Amino acid sequence: MKTMTIEELASWAFVHELPKGGGVDGLDNANSAWRMLEATSWGRINSFAELMTLVDGGRRDHENFFIEQGAPHDDALAVGEAVAGLARCEAIIPEGWAALADWPDTGGLAEAAVARVAERYRLRPFRQRAASLMSLVIGTAVLGKRPDWSAPVSKVRMVERGGRPAWFVEKAVTDVFGRRSLIEVDGLHPRSRRPVRGAYRKYELSDDPTGDILSRLDWQLWVAAMRYLEGNLALALVAHRFAPFDERMTPWLSHEGAGVRLLELAGAAKN
Description:
Strand order of the largest sheet: 1-9
Oligomer: single chain
Structural class: alpha+beta
């Protein structure tokens, strides 16, 4: 038996085995082993010949099919099924997720940026999140490139307008329905250009960390997916066994912090 990490096994499956049947188009072709797994709704595949009767891609796909590619390895099909199973998994971001915990104190600016990213992720439709997770795993396996979790520290700076420190003040307003609320407006007097009573300054990060936070989220989603696949495949392989996959959720910290976890749903009814 060959010994591989789950990362290496996924790469072998999606680069060398699951593109079989897809000709020059590989995974993207409707006749590839991977697309056939999709067509069977993640069911167990007993033979590649059986698969080939399930999808009729038309004359162009037929001409693009290379029989000499042979049948995909059973272990590769098992990997494909396990990856397809990610479509049933909900990714849970922990409350108070500290994706930038290695940064120095930013007066709450980093924490607010992380909270915004986490909230936007939670608001995405379930199917979109699941499809994105599968794409992350497949893309990483095919390209052989892990998600980049680096996040250069941004400086805290005062918000400016026209090269000068900006001032803000809260103003009470009433809408057409008589509801009162506070809005933030310019805190400089329009004539004297001096701060009005109650005016305050605000601070911001010199660089928007959203992209770096999303990259760290991708890292944790990938690690969680690798652990999920490893657990589901441990007893399903016939010619491979696992070497330890010991990547941490928070390699940017000296200790293991809280990270994303995957929850497999009983059904796929969520949108």
